Amino acid sequence: MTIINNEIIDTTLFISLNNTKTRNSMIPGFHDQMQSSIKKGEENTSVSSIIIYGEGNFFCAGGDLNGLKKRRDMSIEERFNTLSQLNNTISCIRECSKPTIAAVEGGAAGAGVSLAMACDFLIMAEDAFFSLAYVKIGLTPDGGVTKLLAEVLPKQVLSEMSLLGDRIFADQLNKYGMINVMTRKSLVKSEAIEFSKKFENSPYNSMKRIKILNRQAYKNNFLDQMKLEAELMVESQGEKESMEGIDAFLEKRSVDFKKLRKE
What we know:
- This protein has helices at 30-43, 65-70, 76-94, 111-117, 145-150, 155-164, 170-175, 188-196, 204-217, 222-237, 240-250, and strands at residues 4-9, 12-17, 49-54, 100-104, 107-109, 121-125, 129-131, 167-169, 181-183.
- It is α/β, with parallel strands linked by helices.
- A six-stranded mixed β-sheet has the order 1-2-3-4-6-9, sandwiched between helices.
- Helix 1 (30-43) runs parallel beside helix 3 and helix 9 runs antiparallel to helix 10 (222-237).
- The longest helix has 19 residues, at 76-94.
- The two termini are 37 Å apart.
């Protein structure tokens, strides 16, 4: 059963969640298909960015409650193995070498918030929301969502979301600088595609290293981060991308990183 569709739009891999009957929840097969989709985007040299979008006016409702109900009969080890599928999906998106964009309509709930927050950029409808309502059904957050949100939200707001299970709407998230583009519901998909065009002529290796630096910046101390920056800068200085970028600047011409992806 195909619950995730892939489409190449110009130089963007457009991944659409298409299990609308359950608001794109993470039913069996979801994680395998999502990880496969991300891998395809990684391996395709013509792809410069990846968009994740939910069909049916809802991004992702997170875990399938019918499936979660069955886990009470599993052993502890079996539960850990099942949760590792979610963790692998979030890690796959977070560690993707190419820019990833979450395009959120309606809302994201539970692990759906993890899915959106694992992406580098967030395009969100002005009436959309995030919801961590685990506490309302006696569960606790997973998929790294508390870490992902703690990096950008005040403690009190994270407490409101996780301990009360309240919805946080786009206008409030936007005040915390979490949203790159907030737009009308009907424009989320087109805005995400337009935003992805910013990466059509971007240097692949440079962006890959920048993403590593950005991830490590949240856990490295200052000296370790400076050391890592120096190591990656040294690598970058010896590559064709920096040669092209510097030559284009000095020669006062348009840079062409796109041609280097085909070599």
